[in-house]
Design a protein that fits this description.
By secondary structure, the protein is mostly beta strands. The chain has a domain of 99 residues: OB fold (Dihydrolipoamide Acetyltransferase, E2P) (Beta Barrel). It has two helices and six strands.
Length: 151
């Protein structure tokens, strides 16, 4: 079984790109804090490469920014390529099947504009939905998806 679950913050604004077949994708790095402190008493982070495809990639590029907190579910994929200098390079990415946005765009923007010393002034995310930020606002009150839709 190849499953990965991560919670972290984006290290840069994701950029939407397209394959030769016009399939949207985005790549970004996710900073994930370790669960323990190092010898100096500081918490370190791992920086994990994430790849997101299709409609979810478009949503990530449109609604997330540097510092946005997300939950990622996916699988690890390895690969290799030959660099311009002729050396063989190896890659490890998490291909995301599911990306959950854990903070609002408003709190992310406030955090990104804050100085390192005033993070305590950033409002905590709320469950209030601003219709302008709601990607499902045009769907009406109810959204129904048939279980046989993908078959």
């Amino acid at each position: 079984m190849n499953r990965v679950c991560l919670v972290g913050r984006l290290t840069a604004k994701p950029e939407l790109r397209y394959t030769g077949g016009n399939i949207p994708y985005t790549r970004f790095s996710l900073a994930v804090n370790r669960t323990f402190n190092n010898a100096q008493g500081e918490r370190e982070a791992d920086f994990i490469n994430i790849v997101v495809w299709r409609r979810q990639a478009e949503n990530v590029a449109n609604y997330l920014d540097k510092g946005s907190q997300v939950s990622i579910e996916g699988r690890i994929q390895t690969g290799s390529y030959t660099a311009q200098d002729g050396s063989k390079r190896y890659t490890t990415d998490v291909v995301a099947d599911n990306v959950q946005f854990l903070d609002t765009k408003r709190s992310s923007e406030a955090r990104n504009s804050a100085t390192p010393y005033d993070y305590q002034d950033v409002p905590a995310p709320t469950n209030d939905v601003n219709v302008e930020d709601d990607p499902f606002a045009d769907f009406g009150d109810n959204v129904s998806i048939d279980d046989n839709f993908l078959e």
